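Q: What structure does this chain adopt?
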Amino acid sequence: MRSRYFNFISKFAQIALLIMTLGLSACASGAKPGAMLPPNSPETTIAPNSVLRETVAIGQTSGGRETNPLWMSDVSSNDLAEALRLSLTARGMFTRNNERFHLEATLISLDRPLAGFDMKVTSKIRYRVTRVADNAVVFDREIAASFTAAMSSSFYGVERLRLANEGTIRENITQFLAALIATERDSPESFGRVPRPQSS
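A:
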Protein backbone atom coordinates (compact mmCIF):
# COMPACT_ATOMS: atom_id res chain seq x y z
CA MET A 1 0.00 0.00 0.00
CA ARG A 2 2.78 2.36 0.97
CA SER A 3 4.68 1.51 -2.21
CA ARG A 4 1.62 2.32 -4.34
CA TYR A 5 1.25 5.65 -2.54
CA PHE A 6 4.82 6.68 -3.24
CA ASN A 7 4.54 5.51 -6.85
CA PHE A 8 1.43 7.67 -7.25
CA ILE A 9 3.21 10.70 -5.73
CA SER A 10 6.22 10.14 -7.96
CA LYS A 11 4.09 9.92 -11.10
CA PHE A 12 2.09 12.97 -10.05
CA ALA A 13 5.30 14.96 -9.54
CA GLN A 14 6.58 13.91 -12.96
CA ILE A 15 3.33 14.92 -14.63
CA ALA A 16 3.32 18.26 -12.81
CA LEU A 17 6.92 18.94 -13.88
CA LEU A 18 6.05 18.02 -17.47
CA ILE A 19 3.07 20.38 -17.44
CA MET A 20 5.22 23.21 -16.07
CA THR A 21 7.94 22.56 -18.64
CA LEU A 22 5.48 22.48 -21.51
CA GLY A 23 3.81 25.63 -20.22
CA LEU A 24 7.18 27.33 -20.03
CA SER A 25 8.38 26.38 -23.49
CA ALA A 26 5.27 27.03 -25.59
CA CYS A 27 4.71 30.40 -27.21
CA ALA A 28 7.21 32.37 -25.15
CA SER A 29 7.14 36.14 -25.70
CA GLY A 30 9.75 38.78 -24.99
CA ALA A 31 9.63 41.41 -22.29
CA LYS A 32 7.55 44.48 -23.13
CA PRO A 33 9.32 47.87 -22.79
CA GLY A 34 6.28 49.57 -21.28
CA ALA A 35 6.07 46.97 -18.55
CA MET A 36 9.70 47.68 -17.62
CA LEU A 37 8.98 51.37 -16.92
CA PRO A 38 9.51 52.12 -13.21
CA PRO A 39 6.81 53.97 -11.26
CA ASN A 40 7.55 57.53 -10.22
CA SER A 41 9.05 58.04 -6.78
CA PRO A 42 10.87 60.82 -4.92
CA GLU A 43 14.15 58.93 -5.37
CA THR A 44 13.78 58.87 -9.15
CA THR A 45 12.67 62.48 -9.56
CA ILE A 46 15.28 65.04 -10.63
CA ALA A 47 15.61 68.47 -9.03
CA PRO A 48 14.29 71.53 -10.89
CA ASN A 49 17.85 72.79 -11.47
CA SER A 50 19.30 69.40 -12.44
CA VAL A 51 21.66 69.38 -15.42
CA LEU A 52 20.21 66.01 -16.31
CA ARG A 53 16.99 67.65 -17.43
CA GLU A 54 16.53 66.89 -21.16
CA THR A 55 20.25 66.27 -21.66
CA VAL A 56 20.67 62.47 -21.52
CA ALA A 57 20.89 60.52 -24.78
CA ILE A 58 21.03 56.75 -25.10
CA GLY A 59 23.93 55.17 -26.94
CA GLN A 60 24.77 51.51 -27.30
CA THR A 61 22.63 49.04 -25.39
CA SER A 62 23.93 45.49 -25.56
CA GLY A 63 23.83 42.06 -23.94
CA GLY A 64 20.18 41.30 -24.53
CA ARG A 65 18.83 38.38 -26.55
CA GLU A 66 15.80 37.93 -28.75
CA THR A 67 13.16 35.55 -27.43
CA ASN A 68 12.81 32.14 -29.03
CA PRO A 69 9.03 31.48 -29.00
CA LEU A 70 9.70 27.76 -28.51
CA TRP A 71 11.95 28.23 -25.50
CA MET A 72 12.09 30.94 -22.79
CA SER A 73 11.10 34.58 -22.52
CA ASP A 74 14.08 36.91 -22.79
CA VAL A 75 14.96 40.60 -22.88
CA SER A 76 16.36 41.99 -26.13
CA SER A 77 18.83 44.85 -26.34
CA ASN A 78 16.32 46.91 -28.32
CA ASP A 79 13.59 46.41 -25.73
CA LEU A 80 16.00 47.35 -22.92
CA ALA A 81 16.97 50.50 -24.83
CA GLU A 82 13.30 51.39 -25.31
CA ALA A 83 12.57 50.78 -21.62
CA LEU A 84 15.43 53.14 -20.74
CA ARG A 85 14.17 55.75 -23.21
CA LEU A 86 10.67 55.59 -21.74
CA SER A 87 12.07 55.81 -18.20
CA LEU A 88 14.27 58.83 -18.96
CA THR A 89 11.47 60.54 -20.90
CA ALA A 90 9.00 60.08 -18.04
CA ARG A 91 11.42 61.92 -15.75
CA GLY A 92 12.28 64.72 -18.17
CA MET A 93 15.85 63.52 -18.73
CA PHE A 94 15.83 62.15 -22.28
CA THR A 95 16.96 64.21 -25.27
CA ARG A 96 17.54 63.73 -28.97
CA ASN A 97 18.97 67.14 -29.82
CA ASN A 98 20.62 68.53 -26.66
CA GLU A 99 22.95 65.72 -25.64
CA ARG A 100 25.21 66.59 -22.72
CA PHE A 101 25.37 63.11 -21.24
CA HIS A 102 25.69 59.79 -23.04
CA LEU A 103 24.24 56.62 -21.50
CA GLU A 104 25.38 53.13 -22.40
CA ALA A 105 23.92 49.99 -20.83
CA THR A 106 25.05 46.37 -20.94
CA LEU A 107 22.84 43.52 -19.78
CA ILE A 108 25.51 41.36 -18.16
CA SER A 109 23.27 38.50 -17.07
CA LEU A 110 19.65 37.45 -16.69
CA ASP A 111 19.43 34.55 -14.24
CA ARG A 112 16.14 32.73 -14.96
CA PRO A 113 14.64 29.48 -13.66
CA LEU A 114 13.87 26.71 -16.12
CA ALA A 115 10.58 25.94 -14.38
CA GLY A 116 8.80 26.53 -11.11
CA PHE A 117 5.73 27.90 -9.40
CA ASP A 118 7.09 31.23 -8.10
CA MET A 119 9.69 32.40 -10.62
CA LYS A 120 12.55 34.59 -9.43
CA VAL A 121 14.73 36.33 -12.01
CA THR A 122 17.88 38.32 -11.24
CA SER A 123 19.34 40.84 -13.67
CA LYS A 124 22.75 42.50 -13.70
CA ILE A 125 23.18 45.61 -15.82
CA ARG A 126 26.18 47.89 -16.14
CA TYR A 127 25.35 51.55 -16.69
CA ARG A 128 27.94 54.03 -17.92
CA VAL A 129 27.25 57.75 -18.28
CA THR A 130 29.81 60.06 -19.86
CA ARG A 131 29.91 63.84 -20.15
CA VAL A 132 29.91 64.61 -23.87
CA ALA A 133 31.95 67.83 -23.60
CA ASP A 134 35.13 66.05 -22.47
CA ASN A 135 34.15 62.36 -22.49
CA ALA A 136 34.59 62.18 -18.71
CA VAL A 137 32.84 59.28 -16.97
CA VAL A 138 30.40 60.65 -14.39
CA PHE A 139 28.65 57.37 -13.55
CA ASP A 140 29.79 53.78 -13.98
CA ARG A 141 28.10 51.09 -11.95
CA GLU A 142 26.91 47.49 -12.15
CA ILE A 143 23.49 47.03 -10.59
CA ALA A 144 21.85 43.74 -9.62
CA ALA A 145 18.12 43.44 -8.98
CA SER A 146 15.66 40.59 -8.49
CA PHE A 147 11.94 40.11 -8.96
CA THR A 148 9.66 37.16 -8.25
CA ALA A 149 6.50 36.47 -10.24
CA ALA A 150 4.22 34.46 -7.99
CA MET A 151 2.10 31.55 -9.18
CA SER A 152 -0.95 33.74 -8.61
CA SER A 153 0.26 36.23 -11.24
CA SER A 154 -0.39 33.78 -14.08
CA PHE A 155 -1.26 30.11 -14.50
CA TYR A 156 1.09 29.80 -17.48
CA GLY A 157 4.82 29.39 -16.88
CA VAL A 158 5.77 31.35 -20.00
CA GLU A 159 3.69 34.28 -18.80
CA ARG A 160 5.14 34.19 -15.27
CA LEU A 161 8.67 34.15 -16.64
CA ARG A 162 7.96 37.16 -18.85
CA LEU A 163 6.46 39.01 -15.88
CA ALA A 164 9.54 38.15 -13.80
CA ASN A 165 11.84 39.37 -16.58
CA GLU A 166 9.95 42.63 -16.83
CA GLY A 167 9.93 43.03 -13.05
CA THR A 168 13.66 42.54 -12.60
CA ILE A 169 14.52 45.02 -15.37
CA ARG A 170 12.00 47.49 -13.95
CA GLU A 171 13.62 47.21 -10.51
CA ASN A 172 17.08 47.47 -12.04
CA ILE A 173 16.24 50.67 -13.92
CA THR A 174 14.65 52.06 -10.75
CA GLN A 175 17.88 51.53 -8.84
CA PHE A 176 19.89 53.05 -11.69
CA LEU A 177 17.80 56.20 -11.84
CA ALA A 178 17.93 56.64 -8.07
CA ALA A 179 21.71 56.13 -8.03
CA LEU A 180 22.34 58.50 -10.95
CA ILE A 181 20.16 61.24 -9.46
CA ALA A 182 21.80 60.82 -6.04
CA THR A 183 25.27 61.00 -7.62
CA GLU A 184 24.44 64.23 -9.42
CA ARG A 185 22.94 65.67 -6.23
CA ASP A 186 25.97 64.77 -4.11
CA SER A 187 28.64 65.65 -6.71
CA PRO A 188 27.11 68.37 -8.90
CA GLU A 189 30.50 69.67 -10.00
CA SER A 190 31.34 66.38 -11.73
CA PHE A 191 28.23 66.87 -13.87
CA GLY A 192 29.16 70.46 -14.67
CA ARG A 193 26.74 72.11 -12.29
CA VAL A 194 28.04 74.70 -9.84
CA PRO A 195 26.41 74.07 -6.45
CA ARG A 196 24.67 76.96 -4.78
CA PRO A 197 26.51 78.37 -1.77
CA GLN A 198 25.13 77.43 1.61
CA SER A 199 23.16 80.25 3.21
CA SER A 200 24.41 81.31 6.63
